[in-house]
Amino acid sequence: MLVPQGQIRFRIRLLKFVLISGTVALLIGTTAAVTARDRHQPDAPAEKPGKYDHLRAHGKALAVLRAARSQIGVPYVYGAQPRSPNGLLAVGHHKHRDGFDCSSFVAYAFQVGAGEWISGTIAHTDQIWTQGGLLPLTPTAGETDKIIRGTGRKPPPGGYRPGDILEMREGAGGYWGHVLIVSERGQVIQSYPPDVYETEPIETYLRRNSRMGWVRVKALQDSSN
Fold first, then answer.
1. What CA–CA distance (Å, rounded) separates 193 from 178?
2. Per-residue model confidence as pLDDT tens digits over 144-191
3. Is-contact 182 193, C-beta < 8 A?
4. CA-to-CA distance for 179 and 105, rounded, in angstroms?
5. Average pLDDT in the 44-69 region?
6. Domain assignments of the chain as residue spans, ordered by start
7. Which residues, listed in sequence order, are joined to residue 142 by a DSSP beta bridge?
8. N or C, which end of the chain has less CB nearby within 10 Å?
9. Radius of gyration over every alpha carbon of the chain, rounded to an integer in angstroms
10. Fold topology of 59-224
11. What is residue 185's predicted lDDT score, i.e. its pLDDT?
12. Which of 35, 31, 46, 93 is nearest to 66 (CA)?
């Protein structure tokens, strides 16, 4: 017996309605179950802030960091020039097209930012440069009229601050091979292949305190007090 076309269309619509209703009910039930589960699930613990995330620069330290940041993205070039106060001042806040290595970058930031000539006196950069990095230097604590120096095993007075210089030992011989500047918000700024950047957390370096020295320029410390 043939079924009238009208009944066929009715049955198809009824079947669609049943299928759609079932799908909606399933979705509502699933959503309710997930909501109930989430309601009883403890919140994920907030990420613990770093010990140095609060660091902010002031005075001459801020001026040093501004000079340093003006060179972000400039390529790392080993043995880059200039390495004299007047040569670095001539670069100013323009991007240095000839690039920086780690020590000339630190010298640039202090000379242009704060008028402090620190190459050799601060980071042993003259010795590193003239000896090709092969001069074994022992990080000794001490003080002059210009700087305070120490080792990573004993942080600077009051803890690390923006504008402090870190000296890193590199290689099996433990020679000085890299210098960088403590920045703000728990970061450092440095010239290291491939370029000048400010991203890595200071803790990355402080974990290696037995292979690290630090230098604080008194002019920066005095200007922030």
1. 11
2. 778 888 877 788 888 899 999 988 876 555 555 788 999 999 899 999
3. no
4. 9
5. 84
6. 1-36, 59-224
7. 149
8. N
9. 30
10. endopeptidase fold (from Nostoc punctiforme) (3.90.1720)
11. 92
12. 93
